[in-house]
Amino acid sequence: MNKYHINVFYSAEDKAFIAAVPDLEGCSAWGKTPEMAVREVQTAIDLWIEAAESMGKPAPEPRYRPAMYYPPSSGPERTIPSRKPQTRTGKSTATA
């Protein structure tokens, strides 16, 4: 089994579930259920890697991880834009 992350989402336009592999450009598949899409993309991953290797290109190491997998201290920095204090009229009380 591969260790590549798979994103699964529903496409209203396609009326199907899409499974996409961010680490492998263009590698995706679809299915009527999320499970079917994942099964199909597993095959697509194997074929993607096979095609890359046949062209003499190594498959990339799995790197993509959604932010939810990062521990709070090691994840990508997230900043929340500061808001200027507002008066009751909605105008900013801060000076430029």
Summarize the structure in words.
With 96 residues, this protein is of the alpha+beta class. It has a domain at 7-59: Double Stranded RNA Binding Domain (2-Layer Sandwich), CATH 3.30.160.250. The protein contains 1 helix and 3 strands. It has one helix at 34-54; strands spanning 7-11, 16-20, 28-31. Strands 1-2-3 form a 3-stranded antiparallel beta sheet, with helices on one face. Strand 2 (16-20) and strand 3 form a beta hairpin. It is flat, with a radius of gyration of 21 Å. The N and C termini lie far apart (56 Å). Residues 90-96 have low confidence and may be disordered.
The end-to-end span amounts to 56 Å
Count of alpha and pi helical runs: 1
What percentage of the residues does DSSP assign to strands (E)?
5-15%
Largest sheet: 3 strands, antiparallel
Low-confidence parts lasting 5 or more residues at pLDDT below 50?
Answer: 90-96
Task: Sketch the topology as an H/E string, one letter per element.
Answer: EEEH
Overall mean pLDDT stands at 81
- Kindly name the structural category: alpha+beta
* CATH architecture descriptor text of the domain at 7-59: 2-Layer Sandwich
Give the C-alpha Rg. 21 Å
Do you know the CATH topology of the domain at 7-59? Double Stranded RNA Binding Domain
Helix content: 10-25%
What shape does the CA trace take?
flat
Strand count: 3
Strand order in the largest sheet: 1-2-3
- Oligomeric assembly: single chain
CATH class of the domain at 7-59: Alpha Beta
Question: SSE layout and pairings?
Answer:
Elements: E1 7-11, E2 16-20, E3 28-31, H1 34-54
Antiparallel strand pairs: 1-2, 2-3
